[in-house]
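The protein record passed on below.

***
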Amino acid sequence: MNEHKHTTKHFERLLVVLDPTSEDGERGAELALDLVGDEGHVELAVALSGPEAWALHAFAEAEDVSAAEAAVIYLDQAVERLGPRAVGATTVDGQDLPQDLVGAVSRAGANGAVLPAQMAARVLASISSWAAMPFPVVVVPQRSAA
């Protein structure tokens, strides 16, 4: 009998787009840390436009700062919560999500991306967007309200 040994190949580095508007907004980071294993790293990102950015804009208005400054504050706190394997943070404009995502993954030196389900639905809404993704995309579903 021929036995196959199953080995898990982890990603070395993933870009994780967080959703500060959602209670589960950092769930993708938890998943990404599992996917990169003990030796891998994650870089965190937030979009500055779209539904995921609403909380950033509300915070920016309340604190009289720009949305970009609100994003930096949020990302700094998220990096601190996640520990040493969260090695960086960036923002994506969000006006052209597929292109912005490709650029962010490239700049991060990542070999994949982790996206909240709602954002993934918008980014990858067309066949051409799916075909244009030059890396794997992991979609993090929302937790059900069970």
